[in-house]
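Subject: sequence -> structure tokens, single chain

Hey, anyone have a minute? Need the predicted structure for the following. Not urgent.
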Amino acid sequence: MSKTYIELKVQVSPVDPWAEIFIAALADAGYDSFEETPKGFNAFIEKDQYQKGVVEDFVQQHQNEVKISFVADDLPDTNWNANWESSFSPIEIGEWCVVRAPFHILHKKYQHEIIIEPKMSFGTGHHKTTYLVMQEMKNIDWHNKRVLDMGSGTGILAILAEKLKAKEMVAIDIDEWAYENCVENLEKNSCSKIEVLKGDASLIDNKGFDIVLANINRNILLEDMEKYTKAMLPGGILIMSGFLLQDVEVLKEKIASLGLLFDKVVTSGDDNSSENFSGNWALIKCFK
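Reply:
Had a minute. Here:
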């Protein structure tokens, strides 16, 4: 499938925390891939979804707080996958798990290995929120569990859940590209217990999930958290990420209003790994 994309090259000063705040706003506006740079970041969106006004509005709203400059260019279809592959390096979570592309050669053993075809869908493990969720998954008993993965992207979290002996997974993403990439990645990882659906939270017609993973963004989490809750078994676990630390309080209010039991917040700054992620992205874990 061929798509034409816009590459938005953004410079911000100061970079921290404004690059991540701007990235979160663009994710809400439909941008589906981001690449951090020393002076800011590059963001990618389908050309027919690009709206210059969204970027200009953000710049104007925060002109007294941060200096932002940007340039938007067409990204040639023929160069995209080559560029993406060249920047895709294996992601390690200690010796517990590695995420690699089919063309990577590993020189040591890992407990779990996930193969992801690096295309234009969210969730290669490089983004801090995906990495946060994967780290938290290490602390959970997945044996014989039913799992819902909302905003599944490449399918990386559902694939890891199957490797951790979960019984059954449903992976849902609204983007056609993500859907097709997820199906491709399931085959590469010999997964047989994951159902992939294209759509939004209205597709959650199956009840009785033991664990719900939702790595999306703040606005969608607030809108759909009630649907996640209704789909969970008593004692079920909800893990949410895709938002900034500054969004935690409003999400905690929603959690309390639904009668969920808040467990903890983890930020990317809590991670001491070689990824050296900053502390502005967050994860929330709670129970039904």
